[in-house]
Specification:
4-stranded mixed sheet, single chain, alpha+beta, 7-stranded mixed sheet
């Protein structure tokens, strides 16, 4: 699972639709010229890259106009400049989910000069135009029809049906999850005919007294204890938490920062944040933003023999299976198991063997343990000591004696068989415990 996929999963799971919208805002004047230059005073200027979806923008336009037509109002037209504004504002929502821009200025400073009677609707996390429009106005329409006119309660709907509006821009910007924005105006439209999707980068000004202080490398994973072997590469992400939507963070375009290594003999880093391990030792990789704010991480590069451990899942039995053998991995996938990638990296040799056992009475069930006592007890119960002849000490693989990366062991008391799970992911571990699994402590350790 990629970093972006993980981010998307965590953000969507945390989403609460009741708070997925900020109140709508409207302004009937023109854009103040003095405010338009406030971005220059920002403490930081970063770049955020993602996907702009113009097809979804047009679907939103269709739904808006269907509603307006039903009420006898003129249809809105998609305007070129307002759509550029909407895409910019949607990208800004990835940094700060608010009608206030990340540089501290009002949202209307993003509007093109001279556009009058302005409104903004924003949303986060919805996967389609239909979903976001349902959240934007279907419930509000019922309240409006019952006589409600408070902008804090039905503001999105009031913006959508405002008779003073003639043009609209719609932003749909996706990086892991989608950010949505409507820019509405009373100005006549210069019709936008753009369709499809495109990768786009947006410059975003940040004032740290407003947002953006919570920064870290690779928020989707814990780098503590992670090591690299000579020849390994690792992509470092510069992540910033969204101050008004703490479930989510945005990954800055790596070219927002200057990347350096304290010792290029140990590892080097390119302008995309990709670290390449060159030699044994320790080196600190630093990413510095234009303001001078920076993040650093010390890498340990080893030159020890290791082996990757593959993790597979049987969707029929619920068992997870672990092996260092590519041949066994491929054969298991061919038999219908799901490939879940690399579970961890193990040392090729250590003083702590991990044993593998098989239950012939329940085909497919395996068990793994560092405990010779547990191994022998299972053999007494009829289990097969499968790894007995793999190595002279009976190890299927080895635990890291330096105890760098823990693998957690969980037990499902509600299942008779295939009821153990092993993972390096603390989030997965905690999630299973929350579902009623039992914490059986640490199973063994990996190198990374």
């Amino acid at each position: 699972m990629t970093a972006i996929m993980k981010k998307a999963a965590s953000a969507v799971m945390a989403l609460a639709l009741a708070i997925a919208f900020a109140p709508a805002v409207v302004w009937m004047g023109t854009v103040p010229q003095a405010q338009a230059a406030q971005q220059e005073a920002s403490e930081e200027l970063v770049t955020v890259t993602g996907t702009e979806n113009y097809d979804e923008a047009r679907k939103i336009l269709d739904i808006v106009n269907k509603e307006r037509t039903a009420l006898g109002l003129d249809a809105l037209e998609l305007d070129v400049e307002l759509t550029e504004t909407a895409m910019q504002r949607a990208a800004e929502l990835s940094v700060l989910y608010s009608h206030t821009r990340p540089d501290g200025s009002d949202c209307f400073t993003a509007f093109p000069t001279g556009f009058t009677a302005r409104g903004e609707n924003i949303a986060i996390g919805y996967s389609s135009a239909a979903d976001v429009m349902e959240g934007w106005f279907y419930n509000e329409r019922e309240m409006y029809e019952a006589g409600e006119r408070d902008y804090n309660k039905v503001g999105h709907y009031l913006n959508i049906i405002n008779p003073d509006f003639k043009s609209i821009g719609v932003g749909c910007f996706t990086q892991g999850i989608s950010y949505w924005q409507q820019t509405l105006s009373g100005a006549e439209a210069t019709v936008d005919t753009t369709t499809g999707t495109k990768e786009a980068s947006h410059k975003i000004g940040i004032k740290y007294d407003i947002c953006g202080k919570d920064q870290a490398f690779n928020k989707n994973e814990n780098l503590t204890g992670k090591t690299l072997d000579v020849g390994d590469t690792f992509e470092m992400d510069y992540d910033v938490t969204n101050d008004r939507w703490h479930y989510n963070y945005v990954t800055l375009d790596p070219r927002s920062a200057t990347w350096t290594s304290s010792d290029v003999k140990v590892c080097v880093v390119d302008d995309k944040g990709v670290v390449t391990a060159r030699g044994q030792g320790k080196a600190t990789v630093t990413a510095t933003l234009p303001s001078g704010k920076s993040l650093s991480h010390e890498w340990t590069v080893t030159d020890e023999p290791t082996q990757v451990m593959y993790r597979l899942y049987n969707p029929n039995s619920g068992e997870h299976f672990y092996t260092a053998s590519e041949f066994e991995r491929d054969a298991t996938i061919a038999a219908g198991w799901n490939d879940e990638g690399i579970g961890w990296t193990a040392p090729k040799k250590s003083g702590t063997p991990v044993y593998r056992l098989y239950n012939p009475n329940l085909p497919g069930e395996h068990h793994y343990t560092m405990s010779a006592g547990e191994r022998d007890a299972l053999v007494e119960l009829g289990w097969t000591f499968e790894s007995k002849d793999y190595n002279e000490d009976g190890a299927a693989w080895y635990s890291d004696d330096q105890e760098r990366v823990p693998l957690y062991r969980e037990y499902n008391p509600n299942e008779f068989a295939n009821n153990h799970n092993y993972t390096t992911d603390k989030g997965e571990h905690d999630s299973l415990l929350g579902l009623g699994w039992k914490d059986e402590g640490l199973a063994w350790y990996g190198v990374k």
